[in-house]
Amino acid sequence: MTTHHGQRLAETLETCRPASRDRPNILKTLLAVQSAMGYVPTSAIPQIAQVLGVTDAQVAGVLSYYSDLRTQSPGRHLIRVCMGESCTANHGVLVLRAIQDHVRVEGGGTKPEGRFTVEQMSCAGNCAVSPTVMIDEDLCGRVTPSDVPSLLKPYP
Amino acid sequence: MKTTRCYLANDTSSRAAGAERLAAAWSDRSEIQLIRTSSRGAFFLEPMVERDTADGREAWFNVAPNDLPRIVGGMGGMPVAGIPFLQQQTRFTFANFGITEPLALDEYQTRGGLKGLAAARSLSPEAIIEELRISRLRGRGGAAFPVWKKWQVAQQTGSEQKYVVANADEGDAGTYCDRMIMEGDPFRLIEGMLICAQAIGATRGYIYCRYEYPAAMRAMRFAIQKAREADLLDCDDYPFDLEVVTGAGSYVCGEETALLESLEGRRGVVLTKPPYPAESGLYGKPTIVSNVLTFATIPNILVRGGAWHASLGTEGSRGTMALQLGGRVKQPGLVEIPFGFTLRRILDQFGGGMAPGSRFKAVQVGGPLGSLFPESQLDIPICYDAFAEAGAILGHGGIVVYDDETNMVELARHFMAFTADESCGKCTPCRIGSVRGREILERIQGGRGTAEDLILLSDLGETMKDASLCALGGRAPYPVLAAIEHFPDEFKSKLSAFSRQQ
Fold it and tell me: What predicted TM-score, i.e. pTM, was given to this entire model?
C-alpha cells in the first residue's frame, strides 16, 4: 500500500466508524473500502478491525466469504463474462475465450497495473439478451466472439 | 420543426441490446423528443422505439440509428396492442412497463399507484392481513410460503422495533424480473413494503440488492428519496426509514437467514430455523423478508381486494406469475400470466419456439436449484402443486431453454460446481457433498468414471436432499439427477471403456 492508498483508507474508515450505540457493519465497511480503493488489501485488515471494534479474524472471514470483494487491485477495467445458464445455452463460453485471447494478445493481462481484468460471473440478470459481458458498470448483450475487439475498444 | 415524442426503454437489458446506442446517436436530433421508459419486457424486440398515435402507441422493433426517418415519418410501425407476445399476457404487476417513466412519481400515481397504500392506511393491521389471507398470495421467491402467515406472526410478536426486508438478491440464473421492477417501477416495490410495514408495525426497511445490479440500486435510491420528499415514508405518523444495502456476490444470501446475517455485515451463513425471521430476524427483532416480486404484487391486492387475486390462477397457486424466458428460445422476455398454462404452451405461444436453426433438448425451470424437463414432460402446468408433485420447483420463475448442442454431462458438472462455489459451509451435506459431486462429474467428463460413480452420485444426491440445512444443498441434486434420468446415454457413453464392458 502506498502512502496515498493509506491515506484514502484512513479517510474511508473514518466515515465507517460506528457511532457509540451503533453496531459495526463489516460488510458495508469492506464495500466502502473497495469502492474507494478498487479493492481491499489484506494488509488493511488490522486497521479495519480496530476502527470497527471487532477482531481481525472477523474481518478476514467476511472478506474471504464474498466473491465480489477482491483483495487484489484489478486492471483499469473489469470485464465480467456471464456464465449463467442462459448465456451458457447461447455459447457464452466462446465469448469468454475470445475475450481471454484478445486480452492476452493485447498484453493487458490481469495484472493489477494492466488494462483489463477478466472474470466469470454467475448471472448478470440479462438473460433475455444473452450472452452477456459486463465491462465496469456497462452491460453488453447478444455478444458474439467477433464483437469482442470493437466491444473493448472504448475502454483505454 | 414539429417534434415527435418517442419512447425508448432505459432498462439494463434494453440498453445492453442497443437502446443506449440509439439514444447517443439521436442526442442532437431536434425532430424527436426521447422519453426513457421502463421496458415492456419483449426483449427480443429491443431496442424498440414507440410513438403516440390516435389509436395508442405504435412501435418499431430492433431499431438501428438510421431507422429514425421511418419512425418520424410514421412508416412501418406496428400497433403495440397488436404484438401477440404482449397482447396475450395478463399484466397486473407489470402493467406500467413500457409506458411510464420509472422515476416519475406523478405518473405512477396517475396510473393507480399508491391506492393500495391508501387502502391499507384505512385498515387495521388485522384487516390488511385478512385481505392477504383471502388473496392466497404465496411468496414468489422460491419457497412459496403463504404471505399472510408470515405477516401475522410478525404482527403478533410484540417488539418495539420490527423490520421489512426486500430480498433483491436475485441470484437464480435465468431470472430478471426483480431487476426489471426495481429499474422500471421502483415505487411499486416501495408501496408494497410500506403496506407490509403498516400491517406489522415496522419502522425500518431494507432492500438487500445484489452487487451485480448497479442500475437497480441507483433507481431505488432515487425513488426512495422522492418518496421521502413526498412524505410517503410515514407510517401512522412515525417515520419509516428505507435503505438500499448492497450484497457482495453470494448466492446463498438469497436464503432469508443468510441474507439477514449479511445485512448485519457478517458472513452470509444459513442459520437453523426456528426461530423464523418473522419472530426473530434482523438484530433479533421480528422481520419480514420477502422477495421483490412478492412486495410488488401486494399493492394491487389492496386496491382490487383479496378475492380478486384469489380468482386468478389455479387451486393452490392464485394470481399471476412473472415468468422469465431465456436461453435458446426465439422470443426471450418477461411473461406475466395467471398460473395454470402448460410449460409447452409458454414455450410455443410466448417463446415462439426455438431460436432459428436450433432444436429443443431440455428446459430448466426454477434456476440452478430447479429442474430439467425433456420434451416428454412439457405438458406440466405452471403451478406450485404440479411442480411439487414432479419433484420440481417453480422457484423465481426463470425458464431457460437448451438446444441439442448442449452437453448434459457438462451442464450437470456446471450445476454441481456452482453449488460447491456457493455453499456457505454451514452444513456438511452441502459443503462436502457438492465438492464430491463435482469431482464425480469431472471424473465422468474426463472419461474416467465408472457405473458405480453414477450410483454414488445418486446416493450422494439423496443424502444432500434429506440432510442439507437449506434449499441450496437440498435442491442442488435435482437438476443433476434429472439430467442423468432423462439423458442416461450421454452419461453412460462417457464412462470408462472398462466400466462399460462390465
Answer: 0.96
